[in-house]
Amino acid sequence: MSDSFDLVVIGSGPGGYVCAIRAAQLGLKTACIEKDNTLGGTCLNVGCIPSKALLSVSEKFSHAEHDFAGLGIDVGKPKLDLKKMMTHKDKVVAANTQGISFLFKKNKVTHLVGTGSITAAGTVEVSGKDGKKTTVQAKNIVIATGSESTPLRGIEVDEKQIVTSTGALTLDKVPASLAVIGGGVIGLEMGTVWQRLGAKVTVIEFLDRVLPGMDMEVSKEMKKILGKQGMEFKLGTKVTGAETKKGKVTLTLEAANGGSAEKLEVETVLVAIGRRPYTAGLGLEKVGVNVDNRGVVEIDDHFQTNVPGIYAIGDVVRGPMLAHKAEDEGVVVAEIIAGQSGHINYDAIPGVVYTFPEAASVGKTEEQLKESGIPYKTGKFPFMANGRARAMAATDGFVKILAHAETDLVLGCHIVGPEAGTLIAEVVAVIEFGGSAEDIARICHAHPTLNETVKEAALAVDGRPIHI
User: Fold this and answer.
1) Rounded Cα gap, residues 340 and 30, in angstroms
2) Would you tell me how many other CB atoms lie within 10 Å of the CB of residue 199?
3) Is 435 helix (H, G, I), strand (E, B) or coil?
4) Are 299 and 286 in contact (CB under 8 A)?
5) Low-confidence residues of the chain: pLDDT under 50
6) Would you call 308 helix, strand, or coil by DSSP?
7) Interatomic CA distance for residues 387 and 343, integer angstroms
8) Separation between Cα atoms, residue 65 and residue 196, nearest integer Å
9) From CA 226, how far away is CA 188, in angstroms rounded?
10) Which CATH number is 162-273 given?
11) What is the pTM of this model?
12) What residues pair up with 75 in beta bridges, in sequence order?
C-alpha cells in the first residue's frame, strides 16, 4: 500500500518548505519531496544564504582594506584566508538547512528523499538515488521546484573556469580576472564578492544598463558607485563565444546591435544571464499541466493549474523569482487548500541587491508609471544629508518615493544606500495598508537613524523636506 497524504509538496526551497509547514499547522497530513540530500533548495544551499555569507564577510574585508585607516583604525593590510571564509559560509548553510529539518519534525511534515514525478492527478512517484521507486497518493499536489541558471548558447559551463552562481560560491582561489556575463542582481552580487577580494571584474550586459528590472535612476547610481569601487562595465554587448585554453578563457564580444568582434581574456567567467523554471522530470506533459513557451507553469488566481488538485508556486510560476515571494505564495496556497482564504499584494513585494551600498525597490518604477500614464509626484532625499549616514561614512545613494499626484497614495519606493533592504520594509508596509506619502511624513522617526531618509523623501513628495 502506498502512503496517502492530504498534500504532497515537490521541492523544499523557501516556497516548498514554508508551504509544507503551514499546511501541517492547519492540520493537513503533509509530505515534502526533495531530490537533494539537504532541505532548503537553491536559496539555502547554493543561492541566497551562502551568497549573503560571502557578501557580508567580503564587505568587512573591503572596509578593513580601504576604509578603516580613514576612521582611525590602523590594522594594516588585511590578509585573506579564503578557506576559512568558505568554512564560515558552509557553517551558515548547514545551520539553516538543519533548521528546516528540525521544523519538519516539529510540525510532523514527512520528508521524502528523492525526485518527485507526477504520474497522475493525485499520484506522485518518488525516485531515490539508489534507483528505488515508491508511490504516494495525494489529495493535493504543490509544485515548488524552483529555478535553475539559464544557459547561454555557445558557452559550456564546467563550474570551474566557466561557472554559474553555484560554482562562483565555491572557487578555491581568487581569480586574477573575472568576466560576469549579465548585469542583473546575481551578477552584480557575486561580481562584488570577488572584486572585493582582489579580482579584476568586468560585467558584460546585453542591455544598455545594469539591473534592468529596477528604476532607471537606481540603475545609473549603482553603476556609478560600483564603478568607483573598481568594477568595469561593457554595456550593450553580447558574448558570442568562449574558448578555454591554458588556464584562461577568451570571450568573443560584439555590440548588441551588431558590429566587429573583440576578444576579452580572463581567468574565470560567471554566466549570470538569469534563471528559468526547473520542471525537468516532473511529468507535467504526461498529466496535461499547461506550461507556456518560457517553461512557466500556468496557474489561476488560486495557484491551481488547469489540472484540478495540482498547484504551483514560486519560481516555476509568473512573477519575480524571489524567495520571499515564494514563501508568501506557499503560505497562501496551503491556506487555500485547507479551506481558508489567502492574500498577496504583488505591488508590495520588495526586491533587494545586497552589494554595498544596497539597492532596494518596491512597487512601480518611474518608467512604469510614465508608460501607464499614471500621474505621480516624486520625493527624493540623499544619504549625504543624513546625520547617521555621515557618522557611518556611508553617504552614497538616495531614497526616492513615488506617490499618486492626486491621491498621494504611495506607488513605489527606490533606495540606493546603506541598509536599503531594511529601510524598504517601512514603505512596503505603507503600500500594503494603502497609505500615503503624508502618512510616512507624519510618522515620528528616531534620530539619528537612517530611517529618517525615508521620512524626508516622503516630505519631499510635498515639496517640504527639512534637511535639504
Assistant:
1) 17
2) 23
3) coil
4) no
5) 1
6) coil
7) 38
8) 9
9) 9
10) 3.50.50.60
11) 0.96
12) none
CATH code 2.40.128.20 for 348-461: no
Q: Pick the catalytic residue from 88, 343, 445, 447.
A: 447
Q: How far apart are CA 403 and CA 434, in angstroms?
A: 11
DSSP string computed for 365-417: -HHHHHHHT--EEEEEEEGGG-HHHHHTT----EEEEEEETTT-BEEEEEEEE
Q: How far apart are CA 326 and CA 333, in angstroms?
A: 10
Q: Count H helices and E strands in the chain, helices first.
A: 14, 22
Dihedral angle of Cα 178, 183, 185, 189, to the nearest 10 degrees: 20
Q: Which residue's C-alpha cell is 536599503? A: 420
The per-residue pLDDT for 259 is 84
CA gap 313, 298 in Å, rounded: 10
DSSP assignment of 330-345 equals: HHHHHHHHTT------
Using an 8 Å Cβ cutoff, are 202 and 233 in contact?
A: yes
Phi, psi of 25 (to 5 degrees): -60, -30
Integer angstrom CA distances of residue 397 from 82, 164, 183: 30, 29, 19
Cα–Cα distance, 233 to 441 (Å, whole number): 38
Looking at domain 3-149+276-344, its CATH class is: alpha beta
Per-residue pLDDT of 147-169, as tens digits, reads 999 999 999 999 999 999 999 99
| pLDDT for 2 | 64
pLDDT of residue 1: 43
Sequence ranges of the chain with CATH classification 3.50.50.60:
3-149+276-344, 162-273
Q: Assess whether 447 carries a catalytic annotation.
A: yes
Helix (H, G, I), strand (E, B) or coil at 125: strand
The Cα 39–Cα 11 span in angstroms is: 9
Report residue 175 as a C-alpha cell.
Answer: 581569480
Give the C-alpha separation, 175 to 263, whole Å: 18
Cell of 378: 516624486
Residue bearing cell 489561476: 300
Rounded (to 5) percent helix, strand, coil in the chain:
35, 25, 40
Least Cα distance to 353 among 415, 431, 410, 411 occurs for 415
CATH 3.30.390.30 placement within the chain:
348-461
pLDDT recorded at residue 360: 98
